[in-house]
Amino acid sequence: MGCGDEGDGEDECDCKGGDEIEVLATSACGEMERHWFQSSVVVQTEGIRDDGIGGGEERMEMGEAPPLEDISLVDIKTDVKGLVTSQRTTLQSPPLSPFRTKLVCFFDESTGRKIHLCFPGFFRSEETVFLTWATGIPVLRHESRHCGSGESNFLFQAFCPGKKDMTAELVNVMEFQELAKKVLPKMYYDYFSGGAEDEHTLRENVEAFRRITFQPRILIDVSKVNLSSTILGYNISAPIIIAPTGMLKLAHPEGEVATARAAALCNTIMVMSSSSTCTIEEVASSCDAIRFFQLYVYRRRDVSYQLVQRAERYGFKAIVLTADTPRLGRRERDIKNKMVPPNLKILEGLLSVELDPEEEGSKLENFAAKTLDPSLNWKDVEWLKSITNLPILIKGVLTAEDARKAVEVGVAGIIVSNHGARQLDYVPASISVLEEVTVVEAVKGEVPVLLDGGIRRGTDVFKALALGAQAVLIGRPMVYGLAAKGEYGVTRVIEMLRDELELTMALTGCGSLKDITRSHVRTERDGLRSFL
């Protein structure tokens, strides 16, 4: 709990009136200016209000820059005696001297947010505040870009040294979602959590799982439960894969890189989106995770070609072709928020689109309309196979006919998906497609069937496996973990689902994934058949 927070007294603060919370950092500015400064933030804890809010000031000392080889803009030394969060910077005086970039580290318990400040005539600042993690401690990195300099005041919530990590008390994915909603700007939260039109399928994706019940077996030795799985020959710790999700720097400034590192820690697969805010090279060099690459086919086929070639060159193991997006679905939250897509770093140097700032509605929808190829068809799978040696999975299958066609054209796997209910509303929930059995029967075991959409519990993973999926992909749960706690948050979400799956397997009498069968679950269709 923070200083002055209400509570039952079990987690009381050790701070005394007059204590100081001080953060020290040495930073470097751009090469052209060759200046440096040392800044400290000093807070009198006696000035903290009952709601945990207090004021502080930043002090800067300017001087000549040391040799550039002695400057590190990444690993900054810090001496921290407390935690701060939710900072706001305002100009207090005219600029002292120009500099381009400062990097300051803070310890924090919130997530990243971007602040844009503009003071006409002499000062402009773009600030990014975000978390990294070191030895389990949340570290807030603060980056500013200025064309002038001045003293700064900070408005923040002060926490006492030794305060418990608030995510330690989160016990399920839904609580991570609640935390993500608090820390993300509304536009970004709506982008990640919203669906198409009435959002009927969005709700149904989750609710359909709840209508499936268990039929556990008893008196079976489950002293050892094995969750390990193999997808396309790659061994993973559990049948839980990270789904392709675009624009992850809107959730956390380390975006896809943090997500890939979490996948590596959890020994699972990350499917990187071709709408990423990090480059293929950045993700590939960040860790040794098993990586698949999701592909949108653009009107400019050379862009798609180059993305596939780069993915193959940098060690990605498969291509996931998204086949359900000839046009972007009507996402009314994005329209109301006038959603603006961020810089898609993955497309830098490949694709540039001019968007009219005066144009109404979602800029994301306008971007998609100008870039995605609506002529994409089954013949293009052959084209894709001709430009890569990687196995290809098709994402967006909802019918047995398309499942059979996918096998006929030689794909390596299919993903049952309604695009997170973000494309066409009133299509079936993903799990309902598996309930009908026809998709699984159509592939006849020739290729793996994966599923995404609506996974919120380990019990959901079990139900999908019982109905014929080899693994599930998680999108929104991963985003909520990322927004709440960066790499650590994604890791925790995967661990939660994995732990819940292991418990479900034990309680249903399944010691390994091969023990999970259709007889372990009962669907509404089963009830109707028995009634008839």
TrEMBL record:
N-terminal signal peptide: none
E.C. no: 1.1.3.15
Cofactor list: FMN
Superkingdom, natural source: Eukaryota
Major site of localization recorded for this protein: other
Pfam families in UniProt: FMN_dh
Family recorded in the similarity comment: Belongs to the FMN-dependent alpha-hydroxy acid dehydrogenase family.
This protein's name: (S)-2-hydroxy-acid oxidase
GO biological process: defense response to bacterium; hydrogen peroxide biosynthetic process
Molecular-function GO term, any one: FMN binding
Location(s), subcellular: Peroxisome
